[in-house]
């Protein structure tokens, strides 16, 4: 049966979760997810549940020591996930935003690195003032982000390690299961391929006294398979493939599409990722470019439009 | 001659810098350093040059690929360096703040993680307002940070990789050399012990198709020796030793003091580092604790007081 996971994957997954440090705040996360799903399943439009997307964003870390001083990180500003979240909200989706702590937030992607010190000053009469240059984007960041959270259409859940990321992703997928094909998984996070299993990890800081450091990292189990086949088998699944070598990019995207039975793989190359991406599905390869004429136009706008179009077709087909 | 570096260290250092990717913006960094030193050497008090401290802060990264997707990072919020910078400025030192991009900034250490979204709202008449709870710390952060930069007593220089960190540290030490014993190096950054030499690094993203990943990391040359003996031989040198295992902490601190001829090593344990540190010098071991009675008191206040006291004695002894 093609829908079944191989035994080895199953065992690797079980052992990954069993050996992971326990996730903190599980009850709170489950509660906020339940409230989010109840709200968005009941506020139906035309008798159909609202559409929901889980956007993952930023890089996961891999601790090298239990009392963590050193870790391996995956470069990701979180810009793709944050900007995509904005466009999903605009077209009426509700969003669970699973993001790496400290990375880019929705509606904040055009702000300077340190908005507080770079955009504000204190006037002579001791009022805090935003400078004229940044006033509009700062206002927009605060109002739209706050409004989305207050209206209950944006749920933000932070992670740091690969363990937290996969543990929370599992909680989300279980919560969204009742939404069936109305849910999208838009997996833009840069997830570690390799990790140090918790039980084989150093407790203390690795000492540097003698010679080079040899490390053996294990492969992270292929969680995309588990998410796709077991955690959320009815949802619309989109994964990302980032490469620095454009010659292998499309082949790798095709492979991911088939291997994990994704509905869509978004292929992007590190150096051009803000200009264009290639959307790979079973039937097509579509290059999506940002509108280079409009100032501040982002590639995420046409990308989300395309995703929404294909998702609608998917829902319609399953409804028929 | 005890002041000489061993040939092997010298060669390792030369090869580290020769193989490192070229630092961007060297001319600008040199210009800002020259202006900083000119200003602070000329604005002398009692005929003596102003005292200057180079505070390093935050962790360095080690890229695992040239087109960097993955890297090893050292955990550090930058709180120690940022808070210490505030206290050095308060007692009249000028500060070169060499910090990891995105880490804690001076006068901002008691702000929430995301000050813009957590402290501000937009009023009905479309003004941006800070909430009452955070108004004072936000005002203080903006005014004091801006004032210090504007007065030319705080120069902020950001880094990300181990290569950038050591390249900029070298530029700073050369610039501060004329200040002789008036300069302190307060090396609070969490610097990588291991790295992948640039020439042996993968160009492209490491592929995860087959099995576990074996990595061999080389030791970073002992730059503390080079800084102490060659780059800034007259300055007052303070390094930090962070361990997770308290049983080896003091022995490691003593070893660093002797091996690198530091004037002071500040020993701290990961779990108690915000409560207390142990200042280790040739003649003493002093435990410095934060004032647990005063709300918001930080251990960096008494720590900087002690450093300034010992630095004054050092300057006086060399002047005599």
From TrEMBL, chains A, B:
Residue ranges of domain DNA/pantothenate metabolism flavoprotein C-terminal in the record: 179-288
GO MF annotations in UniProt: catalytic activity
BP term (GO), one: coenzyme A biosynthetic process
Family: Belongs to the PPC synthetase family.
Name recorded for this polypeptide: DNA/pantothenate metabolism flavoprotein C-terminal domain-containing protein
Organism: Anisodus acutangulus
Native organism taxonomy: Eukaryota, Viridiplantae, Streptophyta, Embryophyta, Tracheophyta
């Amino acid at each position: 049966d093609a829908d079944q996971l191989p035994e080895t994957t199953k065992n690797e997954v079980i052992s990954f979760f069993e050996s992971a440090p326990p996730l903190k705040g599980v009850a709170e996360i489950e509660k906020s997810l339940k409230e989010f799903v109840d709200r968005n399943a009941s506020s139906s439009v035309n008798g159909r549940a609202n559409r929901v997307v889980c956007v993952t964003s930023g890089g996961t870390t891999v601790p090298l020591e239990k009392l963590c001083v050193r870790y391996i990180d995956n470069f990701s500003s979180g810009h793709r996930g944050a900007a995509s979240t904005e466009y999903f909200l605009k077209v009426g989706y509700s969003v669970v935003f699973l993001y790496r702590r400290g990375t880019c937030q929705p509606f904040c992607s055009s702000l300077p690195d340190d908005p507080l010190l770079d955009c504000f000053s204190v006037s002579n009469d001791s009022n805090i003032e935003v400078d004229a240059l940044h006033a509009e984007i700062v206002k927009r960041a605060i109002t739209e982000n706050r409004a989305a959270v207050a209206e209950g259409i944006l749920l933000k859940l932070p992670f740091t390690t690969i363990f937290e990321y996969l543990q929370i992703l599992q909680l989300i997928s279980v919560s969204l299961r009742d939404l069936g094909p109305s849910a999208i998984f838009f997996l833009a996070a840069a997830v570690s391929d390799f990790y140090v299993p918790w039980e084989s990890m150093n407790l203390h800081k690795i000492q540097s006294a003698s010679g080079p450091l040899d490390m053996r990292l294990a492969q992270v189990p292929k969680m995309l398979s588990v998410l796709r086949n077991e955690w959320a088998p009815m949802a619309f699944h989109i994964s990302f493939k980032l490469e620095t070598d454009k010659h292998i990019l499309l082949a790798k995207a095709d492979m991911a599409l088939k291997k994990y039975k994704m509905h869509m793989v978004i292929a992007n190359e590190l150096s051009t990722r803000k200009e264009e991406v290639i959307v790979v599905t079973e039937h097509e390869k579509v290059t999506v470019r940002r509108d280079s004429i409009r100032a501040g136009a982002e590639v995420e706008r046409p990308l989300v439009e395309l995703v929404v179009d294909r998702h609608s077709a998917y829902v319609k087909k399953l409804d028929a």
